[in-house]
Design goal:
9 helices, Aminoglycoside 3'-phosphotransferase, Chain: A, domain 2, Phosphorylase Kinase, domain 1, 2 domains, globular, five-stranded antiparallel β-sheet, alpha+beta, 14% strand
């Protein structure tokens, strides 16, 4: 299928980049990570001043059929990274967005490829892979540098950079109310494609009834987790912040909560230890507060919210993987997965059983 896209994509790129004379593209490859969008990696070559130049690019295409999320807003992802291109947040250079499905059969965007390495969540990066071979000092530095980048996101002047459109002020009093409404609908949609998830409804009711007052409003990355980083080939520098499909406005401690929960899901959630050297939780909280200028006072609420969100996402993942034959129906992977121990602990903590 991807080979059929080569010629129309080459023509599209040549029209977008007329200064790159004689542009041609290489064969496609696909990254090992990433489940939400179809992603193609390739190189372009062109002539410039009598010499051949090359550039690595990435194409992200809207997925077909029912995905993990109710909908995929490629324009949101593209424009979020585009808005941040000259900020302290390290995002890829965006090349172009195409919303006309007739070009490649589906909408897509193109960005420059970043050079580096990433952490896989399957198999879990703390169980096997290059992180397990790094020194404790390097592992600690990666986490600290990641928190610094998270803080840069949370310090962004979201109004000046055009992110006000993430919040529908006419319909929702706060960004949090908007987010809770979205995930209530997400839960119903996921159940309609699978089975009921009854234990989440007391959690939703608590979240709705106990929304923090006077929450700060900042830009939130949304999917703040180690596999969404591009890390230098050697050392611990963060060279890229990827995957902006969950970007939103809200209390920025939500990003910190998401980092904790998603990292814990691949260790505590699977009964695995963390690699040696990672900063302890309190040190991470202190670093984030100091560098972001925000308070972590509502972290408990946002960890409950994050576990709720993650349980819904994993419910949908489990339903899809079961339908695709990766799990048997009796495995009930939609209800019992690496989010289960974490959400059950939160339900017990808040007395929501």
């Amino acid at each position: 299928m991807s080979e059929k896209l080569k010629q129309p994509l080459q023509q599209w790129l040549q029209e977008k980049l007329p200064q790159k004379s004689g542009l041609s593209i290489s064969d496609f490859t696909s990254p090992a990570a990433g489940a939400s969008n179809e992603t193609l990696l390739f190189d372009i070559s062109w002539q410039e001043n009598g010499q051949t130049r090359q550039q690595g690019l990435v194409a992200r295409l809207r997925p077909e059929g029912e995905g993990i999320f109710p909908e995929y807003d490629l324009e949101l992802q593209y424009h979020s990274m585009q808005r941040l291109h000259d900020s302290a947040v390290k995002v890829p250079v965006m090349v172009g967005l195409e919303t006309d499905a007739s070009v490649l059969g589906k909408p897509f965007y193109i960005m420059q490829r970043m050079q580096g390495r990433y952490l896989a969540d399957n198999p879990p990066y703390q169980m096997e892979g290059w992180l397990t071979e790094e020194s404790p000092e390097c592992c600690a530095a990666i986490w600290k540098n990641a928190l610094s980048q998270m803080a840069e996101i949370n310090k962004v002047d979201w109004q000046a950079r055009g992110f006000a459109d993430l919040w529908d002020k006419e319909k929702f009093a706060t960004p949090l109310a908007q987010l809770l409404d979205y995930y209530a609908s997400f839960l119903s949609w996921a159940e309609s494609l699978g089975r009921p998830f009854e234990k989440l409804y007391p959690v939703l009711a608590y979240l709705q009834q106990n929304q923090p007052k006077d929450d700060p409003i900042a830009l939130c990355w949304g999917d703040a987790k180690p596999p969404n980083l591009m890390i230098s080939e050697q050392g611990a520098d963060i060279v890229g912040i990827l995957d902006w499909e969950m970007v939103h406005l809200g209390n920025p401690v939500h990003d910190l909560a998401w980092w904790f929960v998603l990292d814990d899901s691949l260790t505590d959630g699977l009964g695995l230890p963390k690699v040696e050297g990672l900063p302890v939780r309190q040190a991470m909280i202190a670093q984030w507060q100091q560098e972001s200028g925000h308070s972590a006072a509502e972290l408990d609420y946002y960890e409950l919210l994050t576990n709720f969100q993650f349980a819904i996402i994993m419910h949908r993942v489990g339903t899809r993987l079961t339908a695709q034959g990766f799990f048997k129906p009796e495995d009930a992977f939609d209800l019992n997965n690496n989010s289960t121990l974490l959400i059950d602990a939160q339900i017990a903590k808040f007395g929501l059983a």
